[in-house]
Design brief:
- Strands 2-1-3 form a three-stranded parallel sheet, covered by helices on one side.
- With 131 residues, it is of the alpha/beta class.
- It has six helices and three strands, in the order E-H-E-H-H-E-H-H-H.
- Helix 1 links the parallel strand 1 and strand 2.
- The chain has a single domain, classed as Rossmann fold.
Length: 131
């Protein structure tokens, strides 16, 4: 069975949720697919402060203590991920924007930590800040 997680960036459960529901219905017609719909406004998400502590000392030292790790665990447990958000003046809604700002350490440090040492990660983050 394949698992697909749909992250919905709208706090109002109206058109975006309806569209996601139809999408999930059609997706499940394709076969053995388990779908989970996650409404981001149901989770506590803080905005990344850009302090780079996650790069310098490790993700466990991040000063933000919100539900971001719960969402990242859902991503990692999924075979497919869908992001659905209404369009607000050609931008995404605040919830998905807030959840993505703190994801750099997740996608860089967590995903590549098996292949790179912490020292290598620090060097890479320092080089990125200089450029």
């Amino acid at each position: 069975m394949k698992k697909v997680t749909v992250f919905v960036g709208s706090a109002r459960k109206k058109l975006t949720h309806y569209t996601v529901g139809r999408f999930v219905d059609h997706l499940q017609l394709l076969g053995d697919i388990e779908c989970e719909i996650v409404t981001l406004s149901d989770y506590r998400l803080e905005t990344c402060r850009g302090c780079c502590v996650c790069f310098k000392r490790g993700e466990e030292f991040c000063p933000l203590k919100d539900d971001r790790d719960v969402l990242f665990d859902k991503i990692m447990a999924s075979d497919g991920v869908v992001f659905a958000t209404p369009n607000y003046s050609f931008h995404v809604s605040p919830s998905p924007r807030s959840s993505s700002t703190g994801s750099a350490s997740f996608f860089i440090a967590r995903s590549f930590s098996a292949r790179l040492s912490q020292a290598s990660l620090r060097k890479a983050s320092m080089a990125a800040r200089r450029s």
